[in-house]
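Researcher: Sequence of Copper amine oxidase-like N-terminal domain-containing protein follows. Predict its structure.
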Amino acid sequence: MIKKHRRKFVTLLLAFSLFGAFLPTSPEATAAERPAASKVSSGHLLIGTYLIQKEALTKPVLDAAKASMDQSDQGMYYKSELADGAWFNIQNGYDLSAILSPSGTTVTNADIDKMTISVWVHLVDGKPTVEWTQTPADLDQAIAGAKAQQVQAEADNKAAVEAGDDTLAITLSLKAATLKAQVAFLEALKAGKGDQAAAELEKLADPEKLLADSVKGAQADLQKKLEADLKKAEDALNAATDPAEKAKLLEQKKQAEDNLNDFKANALSSQVDTANAASLQLAQDLSRAVNNSQTKQALDLLTQLEAADQQVLILHKGLLTQQVAALEKKIKETTNFDEIQELQAEIATTKQSAYAKEKTAWEAEVKVLEAAFQTAEKLGQNDMAAQLLAKLNTIAVRLDEIQAEAKATRISSRKAEIADLKKQIQEAKAAGATDTADQLLMPLVQAEGVQAADEQGVIDIILDIEEAIVKVNAKLKTASAEEAVLLKQELAVLNTNLLKAQKTELFLIKEQAEKKQAEVKAETGKTSPTLTQMHQLYIKEIKAIEKQKYTAIDLTALAALQKQIKKEQPKATVLPVENVIAKSVDIKFMMPPVILDGRTLIHIRPISESFGSTVIWNNDEQSVWISQEGATVYCKIGDKTALVNGKPVTLDVPPRLIAGRTVVPLRFVVEALGLNVTWDDPSQTIEIKGTVNR
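Model: Prediction complete. Tokens:
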């Protein structure tokens, strides 16, 4: 089996440790070959084996010098301008601030002269130059050693590529690149080109760039190797004649293709990550420039960000296209139905993952740019604020596109799932496996119900709210007490809206189960046991959501009211408040429904107001008016005759007072408002169906 290649992030900082390895620790240099400690001008540092004029000290020089400290076991010393040129041991080399006020142990010139100094960095005509301070033989030895190790590293890297070990290949590629830079540095010293040596030292001190270059080189070598492996597998397959051998070689060829496709995708994915990081860094730099009122710099950075974001978009789309194309190629090459289904599902998963990754990247940038926009407005940078707003709008358009693409992918994938389930049901029926066919109805109805929810935008609402909840919870972790109060209020609203959306999704699945049950009964004359069970399951879940509207205090008050009702009406059946469900509205009862003499009576005010009606109680008449656009209802306590839009209607039972509240026949008031009511006996649940203009 050919080893599959997976992208691994490798962070290697070899440059300085390798550099230090070539600095002799026991030089044979004479005092004439380097400046004597007493002759060195004040303001010089001795760091490891580097003698550095303070004015020539840069971060790359400091990093390289510190690397030599580990090899030489020498610390950091400073020749002060403030103490008659005395040398000070400044805390063993880790606190450069000590040069401003040197104190502590002084070191004699004689002790400094005993120490190893391999490189001298100082200014010549105002420019940094680097000089080798040991013998030419030492320098030649260092160059030869570096070259030998470079050759060995390159050979080891080639072997790692041949073995398909990408992690080791990248490590060795970086080592070879570091050694190559080391050789260039030492050869510049040998040629007496101090300025060139300083430039090479700058390169050597940038391991991130060396790493990036090394990764590119290693990836190119690995890709060539994988392409060669695939070509070899294809040639072997084309040449084979034995069926068993051909089958074996076909698997090897597929594996070689997988290896190459995985490698290409991982390499491109790495480019995507790099591009995302670069764009975010530009956005952060832009935000700082706006904050510092550096208008020209901010405009330049905005232009750079536009170009970088275009590259990000191209890379994201390119990566997804590449991944999907590889999977679609596999689909074309197989006739196995199960394998095709798995590949189609993998395409959908790949797309959703890609959309999520791109969305996360854009949202991170938006967060930075929104802060910059607010700062620009606050500081009166009107032109910059306008350009930032335009940029934010551009990203918002792309985020909308991502959401639409993700939704289209979900719907397409689910359609394929539904088609497959229908096919399985037909096959089960044809084989006489009626129980299997019946059991498959549950996943089919669930998929169809969720599909309806997705097409109506309910799934998008749920996903958006869930994402918002995650963000608010993240803010809560670092919020002040005052901020936490507002965030908790926001969280409460989000949770309420999430429950509403989830309830709508459950209703759509329940309705699909009812529709499918009707189809089954029309076809077979019987009901489906699976759908019957499923129907009750979803009613139970809907009721659980309905109950969450009530606080512990609400439920305690309702329990007390239930006892009062039973005391007044011993023959009454009191239903739990969550047993009244409605898809289109949320009804919150302050009195539970009551079944008395076979009729369901309900507190008139909450149900009417939930549907947008106006309720007016006349205490003198003991009557109630309900006004809803397009309908008016009038009824009176103890009177079986009610008025609907001015016309008399005879009620089965009159309105009455129970526990001090007006209750009316449920069916009457619901139908008077243009709605419908159904009763589910197994669950003792009342469902109000329909909508009214509000």
